[in-house]
């Protein structure tokens, strides 16, 4: 009679065989990263990287939101950013650059948990970082999670095994991103100690991508130029790598701010483009624009007044809003859509300023503020409810409440509006 160990070994072998068949032979797509995602928006929790006021209007056109960054990212600001963007209106991926950015709360907030692996960095970038992450899961996050969830202690031995299962399951459920970093002048390159000698030719990149798919079982191979467009060099790498991959998704990120650049890398073989910097630039742009609008327009300005003012205040075709929207392959006429969103943002800002002025000195507590907002149509509510689920506790109501709490200096729990550009 076979032993328990024999049965377990046979079962594990069969499972691996089925998994391998699903990736190579069977006519099914077993990669958990949706093939439909051809555009991903990278959102950085860093304090200086703000979100546009009506950010769900822009994000309705992307496939997914990837939350993470290489500098000044913490567990707290990651939680805050996820609280704002997760599911509004697209699924959120947490991509930590450090183990302590992963918390019990971020694991609950994010739909996907992505573990970065750098294929052309130093050993620390792939082995050391992953090792410290597993140690953190086993020795800190896992025990803390177990202590919070268990009604009674189970004993050291059983609890250790459960924590080990928790750690293994967390990594099993994770999506692994195998990075090829090609911009030396980037935070990502510095973090992974990528030097001139580590830059890869198309053939070398292809070989490492094959290792990522076959041995590391990375769901994503990510060609990263981080803030600069890779041009013909990136296209050559994408062409070679895409021919070698059959299961892993191939993503490209870096310097994308036009329809032409996006089309070039998609035609070269990328499955998806990742756009980050220009999205945060919308927030910087609109903060200045809204400040000028408040100075120059009356609170009761009509839609026509705002549209005329926008036409003279900014070249919409050259705006960050239009640049970001132009990177979305499925979106036609990004300039017209950018104008629509900028006008809606200014209208919401003017209405908010009028509302804040009317309530200043009239409400002093959270309950009074909530009562004052009941049965009102709030700034931005119509536009955001067209993208998100409405209702008495809808996101635009949470957002306006949070902005007013901040403005009127009321003591209350609120959304982390400090991440919003016009807060």
Describe the strand arrangement of the main beta sheet, using strand numbers. Answer: 1-2-3-4-5-6-7-8
Average pLDDT over all residues: 88
Q: Kindly estimate the percentage of residues that lie in beta strands according to DSSP.
A: 5-15%
Distance between the termini: 69 Å
CATH class of the largest domain: Alpha Beta
CATH level-four homologous superfamily name of the largest domain: FMN-linked oxidoreductases
Give me the CATH fold name of the largest domain.
Answer: TIM Barrel
Number of domains: 3
Counting H and I runs of at least 4 residues, what is the number of helices?
17
N-to-C series of helices and strands: HEHEHEHEHHEHHEHEHEHHHHHHH
Structural class: alpha/beta
Please count the beta strands (DSSP E, at least 2 residues each).
8
Helix content bin: 40-55%
Write down the Rg. 24 Å
Q: What does the main sheet amount to?
A: 8 strands, parallel, barrel
| Shape label | globular
Low-pLDDT segments, ≥5 res: none
Please name the CATH architecture of the largest domain: Alpha-Beta Barrel
